[in-house]
Amino acid sequence: MLSGHKGYVSSCQYVPDEDTHLITSSGDHTCILWDITTGLRTSVSGGEFQSGHTADVLSVSLNGSNSRMFVSGSCDATARLWDTRVASRAVRTFYGHEGDVSSVKYFPDGNRFGTGSEDGTCRLFDIRTGHQLQVYKQPNSDSDIAQVTSIAFSISCRLLFAGYANGDCYVWDTLLAHVVLNLGSLHNSHEGRISCLGLSADGSALCTGSWDSSLKVS
């Protein structure tokens, strides 16, 4: 058992190509890198440090091409870039959302990452410059905006998959920022909040999980 967080654990991810380490995010405002062979914390990012998150951390995503770097999303409406070798301070803080950042995911090229938020938008950021590159806003009226709960990218980087609290799952064109398809139109949308989604290793299938107790594969 790995013990060290002082709040609920919101997400976890194994370090790519390394089965002995994983990273977790928590309601205690921190992210922890663990050595699972010893059960010890290798580094703690955030917490009492001034550049850390000021609210619950909801999601983490590791850079597939540089496993020392990861991004985190928080209820403080920001995403932050971290280097596990210098855990005492965030490398960069990314602003723009107006609600909890519920999901973060690295772009396959490792130079960009996406976010999904309770403000109903997804965004794409450049790691190197800190600039916001794109905003993916639902084509609904402002009074009918569903929260984004989870996101994933296609292997080609051209598509962004986003799950929403109303059970929809949109497929976005990452370059043009328009909806290619609402997967709910292919078959009935989930009857509850989409809580997670995952892409198959070869990119040919997407699975969504929901509070309606069902999984759907597209």
Automatic annotation (TrEMBL):
Pfam families: WD40_Gbeta (PF25391). GO terms for biological process: signal transduction. PROSITE patterns: WD_REPEATS_1, WD_REPEATS_2, WD_REPEATS_REGION. Keywords: Repeat, WD repeat. WD repeats lie at residues 2-44, 50-92, 94-135, 187-218. Gene3D superfamilies: YVTN repeat-like/Quinoprotein amine dehydrogenase. It comes from Heracleum sosnowskyi. The keyword Membrane does not apply. InterPro entries: G-protein_beta_1-5, WD40/YVTN_repeat-like_dom_sf, WD40_PAC1, WD40_repeat_CS, WD40_repeat_dom_sf, WD40_rpt. This is G-protein beta subunit.
